[in-house]
Amino acid sequence: MIFGKQENKQPVERVLPRHLGIIMDGNGRWAKKRGLPRSAGHTAGASNFRTITRYCSNIGIPYLTVYAFSTENWKRPEEEVSALMKLFQQYLEEALRDFLDENIRVRFIGDTSVFSPKLRELIQRVEDSSACKTGMVLNIAMNYGGRAEIIHAARSLAEKVRQGEMAPEEITEEVFSQALYTGGQPDPDLIIRPSGEQRTSNFLLWQSAYAEYIVCDILWPDFKTKDLEEALDEFSRRQRRFGGV
Ligand code: FPP
């Protein structure tokens, strides 16, 4: 079920978001419901990540950002964090094989400098080897936090001012957007959050100023392409006013 869905069921012409964000939430609850360890939920979530990513690429979504690991997720039990790191390693190795065949350009947003040397090396290889791809841009948010991203951008601009490369009054919304990890990309038009939680959880804080939110009560591993289709229909019905009338 999509919360706050408009009752108008008239068929609408499909409008694809230029940039779709997904908060892949509910893996832990999915596992708990089955009496499995939380890590099993992440494994199922990672498999679904692959299915949904491929689908988004096939239907022509230009930019997809998925929230894989937040700056706050380090607070989880060590066992769960380490299972997630292993999963990232495994899926990035697979991404090197699979996504490259599919013309997907993979980028990472967040502070990846804290990951193990092995994972960092893999992240670099995935970025480098997909840099020439011309299809969908997939941003994987890892050790990402919207507030941390804003601080990072503010510091880089402050440094330019200190070096005399720019004046403070040259810092406009456009300039600031360019200094974010997503610089050069359009802002997300749509953010989908499965699992029933109705909060932003520090995801794309600056960029989502005018994003449509769709929240549904399906846990991420159960969120199938038909649910994505339903969310895209709902998005197509929304009237976006960007502060106007
Ligand atoms: C949130 O669910 C999910 C995560 C913190 C991890 C998401 C990661 C994946 C789906 C793996 C993706 C892999 C790659 C390579 C991108 P939760 O654990 O907070 O669920 P809960 O709210 O039910 O406890």
Question: Which terms would index this structure?
Answer:
single chain, alpha/beta, six-stranded parallel β-sheet, 42% helix, 14% strand, globular, binds farnesyl diphosphate
> What strand order characterises the main sheet?
3-4-2-1-5-6
Number of helices: 7
Describe the largest sheet: 6 strands, parallel
Structural class, judged by helices and strands?
Answer: alpha/beta
Order of helices and strands: EHHEHEHEHHEEH
**Form type:** globular
Distance between the termini: 29 Å
Chemical compounds bound to the protein: farnesyl diphosphate
Q: Beta-strand level of the residues, as a percent range?
A: 5-15%
Low-confidence stretches: none
How many whole angstroms does the radius of gyration measure? Answer: 18 Å
Mean pLDDT: 94
Count of extended strands: 6
How helix-rich are the residues, as a percent range? Answer: 40-55%
